[in-house]
Amino acid sequence: MPTDVANTKELKRLTNEALTYSGSRGILAAIVDELVGILESVSGFRMSQEESLTDGETVCDHGLAISPAQAGCCAGEYQRTAIFLRGAHSAIMQALEANSRGIVRVLYAGSGPYATLAVPLMTIFPPEKVKFTILDLHPESIQSVRSIVSELGLQCSVESYVVTDACNYTIPPRSLPDILLCEAMSTALEKEPQVGIARHLLSQAPDAIMVPESVQIEAFLVDTSDEPDMIIPESEDPSESQKPNRISLGPVFELSKAAIRSWPPTEADSLPAQSIQLPLIPKPSYRPFLFTTIIAYGEHVLLTHDCNLTGIREIMEIDSVAAGGDSYQFSYLLGQNPRLVAEASESHAPGSRRD
Ligand SMILES: C[S@@+](CC[C@H](N)C(=O)[O-])C[C@H]1O[C@@H](n2cnc3c(N)ncnc32)[C@H](O)[C@@H]1O
């Protein structure tokens, strides 16, 4: 018998709202805020007053595992949380349709203290249809998720809890997941180990659906004198992507199943990425930036400035764009501080020089 029937019912109602609400951003924010409030209240997880947000973070071989407190804060990023929940929900529906065994397994790597992208869905899908494995590097986070699941009476939806580095995890062959769910990333896939985790887990479950389905990074020249205008979320105003102050330089890197399959299966310290060539620019205030788009699954997409993860990042290695014609080759550096880096490759501009 669930300990907290009222909260479980309310969480189910709020989850249905978060999955379907299509009105103003303010109301969606309030829905997600209430939903996260329930997880928080039943978790028993509290950040101590003396702690800073970064206390308890761990540098791993494939990137930074942010602290449980900081991971808890991600939950309140309402657009991110709603779109990932919708993507995970769609992916599960798709897997249920395709799966003749009648049971769908979700491996949630990097759950944080609230398992925000899984617990709400446990109220929607019955445990005999969908089972979750909850994994995080930090034992406090897993302890917190255990409390939430038990308080809400959702134990039958959880197949196992795992405290480990997802990049070293061996998936038990008898419970291969149908869905790999992971949000352990930062803007432009820097710092956190999303790439390392997705690559490692997909190699063991190659048929699984990945959520997010794709993370796409594209370079633009942006007129920095116009910068204040750029913080409008693109999903709110689609004309933002057409802004005349942005000049596309083309795609730079993608994390998706197809991309992972195309990468060399070596122990190399970097992954291949695309190159860009700078055009002649209209004004000296133009600077190159990386833009991130996240396809959670299907139509559920986070566009530029929809949330922190899709903010924009200046490409610091490119110190001057004045000449035009210069080419830069990107690569994705693996290791404790993963990130995209650009290196000058060749110059096509008449009279352009390289020091
Ligand atoms: C950005 S937080 C997101 C939390 C949660 N997924 C959400 O969407 O609200 C990333 C989480 O991944 C976990 N994490 C990061 N690297 C990890 C790794 N190598 N193995 C297991 N967990 C990891 C962190 O501890 C943190 O809880």
Write up what this structure looks like.
- The chain is an alpha/beta fold.
- It folds into 2 domains: 5-213, 3-Layer(aba) Sandwich (Rossmann fold); 215-347.
- Helices cover 27% and strands 27% of the residues.
- The strands form 4 sheets. The chain has a 5-stranded parallel beta sheet with strand order 5-4-3-6-7, sandwiched between helices.
- A hairpin with a 2-residue loop joins strand 11 and strand 12 (300-302).
- Helix 2 packs across helix 6.
- The chain is globular.
- Bound molecules: S-adenosylmethionine.
Blueprint (SSEs and pairs):
Blueprint: H1 5-20, H2 25-43, E1 58-60, E2 63-65, H3 68-74, H4 78-98, E3 104-109, H5 119-122, E4 130-136, H6 139-151, E5 158-163, E6 179-182, H7 194-204, E7 209-211, E8 214-223, E9 246-256, H8 257-262, E10 270-277, E11 286-297, E12 300-302, E13 312-314, E14 326-333, E15 339-347
Parallel strand pairs: 3-4, 3-6, 4-5, 6-7
Antiparallel strand pairs: 1-2, 8-9, 8-11, 10-14, 11-12, 11-13, 14-15
S-adenosylmethionine (SAM) is lined by residues 60, 65-66, 71, 74-75, 109-112, 116-117, 135-138, 141, 165-167, 183-184, 193, 197.
